Amino acid sequence: MHHADHRFSQVRPRRAAAVAFVAVLGLSVFTACASHHPTAATSALTTEHDPGAAPVGPALAMTRLVEGNTRFATGTMLHPRQTAERRTELASTQAPFAVILGCSDSRTSPELVFDQGLGDLFVVRVAGNVIDDHAIGSIEYAVEHLHSELLVVLGHERCGAVKAACQAYVTGSESDDHIQSLLEAIEPAVAETTGQDAEATCLANIRNVVRALRSSEPVLQHAAGAGHLKVVGAYYDLDTGLVAFLPDVE
Asked: Which of 115, 142, 174, 216 could be cross-linked to 14 through a Cys-Cys bond (beta carbons 3.0 to 4.6 Å apart)?
């Protein structure tokens, strides 16, 4: 990954690259979140998770995320596990039930979007939800040492980093600071979705990152192959507040 100094708003012509174009998967085939409205009285999944307990498996972790996101989208948030007692409980240990690799966008905080509390989620955020060695190392720590078994790559509607990558690709321009590294990381998804809109590119980028994480050696590939880690993609709708989980990526 190139690390020159670049900025979205300051561009200069650059040499056009020959890139092979491939067909993008359809946009309409992702699974929407559940439509029920769980409450503290009806759902056992809102109870506190003991940091010293056994790891939460991917299926239960996914259900907790879906339920929490439904509460967020419908304005029925519980704001669970945010007390002084919870803070004290976590002072010397943690056991996040899921890892979220998300975009840095200020509108997409995973703890809010999934209505979770202290110690529930291990969150790594970078513009465009792309990865480098630092991000992968952070995720590896959660998987290998904290025993999180669900990893969600969370992209979102109208992502500025994706839009900028699309514009740079079309105009053949280059940014003037470190933002260029983000544009280059997203560029393969842009090439895959030439002629389509930025949301198609966002979905392609999510899928590419999911594949890269599943094949990341040595920790993540091993954990996924051994059945100790599930890596999934998800897409957050800024308008509705709902997160849609993408079909399994091959």
From this structure: 174
